[in-house]
Design goal:
By secondary structure, the protein is α/β, with parallel strands linked by helices. 31% of the residues lie in helices and 30% in strands. The longest helix has 16 residues, at 88-103.
């Protein structure tokens, strides 16, 4: 930037984006000072280096804004642990949490943990997973079918598209069925 540019000649672009051409560095710095702006080296690896007359503070702000914009949320995998003999209320609570995760855009891995002799009845685990998938079918699809590894049966759910929009409120005068 400005006096730190050590090259003898630079390819100059003015503040309007017009290419002026190859000029001596002193001439480019004089033009930048007359405009009340900075001479910024935007492409130092080219021959001759490309410099632009611009406001350096604004350039740094736009660069940081561009870097922040490039960061997107990646879908996390949230795990839900259940047991074959889970209570009705506990299961509904787990389903509610899974729905919340899916609506945020995360994937949900269902882990059915078997203890002792429960491992001899894998159909109980499949039944639990199928019930969870049926309850969440409006917001999810089954990515990986239930598979078993010793004492744990797992299945992976992924969100369907965007989060579901809430139902429209009834207009005044319409009857609300209960």
């Amino acid at each position: 930037m400005n006096e730190r540019i050590r090259e003898r000649e630079v390819r100059l672009i003015d503040q309007d984006g017009e290419q002026i051409g190859v000029v001596p560095t002193e001439e480019a710095q004089r033009l930048a000072t007359e405009a009340g702006l900075d001479l910024v080296e935007v492409s130092p690896n080219s021959t001759p280096p490309v410099c632009k007359i611009m406001d350096f503070g604004k350039f740094k702000y736009q660069l940081s804004k561009r870097q922040r914009h490039g960061k997107h949320k990646t879908a996390e995998v949230k795990a839900i642990r259940v047991f074959p003999k889970i209570d009705e209320h506990d299961l509904s609570f787990k389903i509610k949490n899974a729905r919340r995760f899916l609506e945020k855009g995360d994937k949900v891995q269902i882990n059915v943990l078997f203890k002792g002799r429960e491992a001899k009845h894998p159909e109980l685990g499949v039944e639990i997973i199928n019930r969870i998938v049926a309850e969440l079918e409006d917001v999810t699809s089954l990515e990986r079918a239930p598979s078993r590894d010793r004492q744990v049966m797992t299945a992976l759910l992924t969100p369907k598209g965007k989060a579901k929009k809430p139902a429209a409120k009834p207009q005044p005068g319409e009857s609300e069925a209960k």
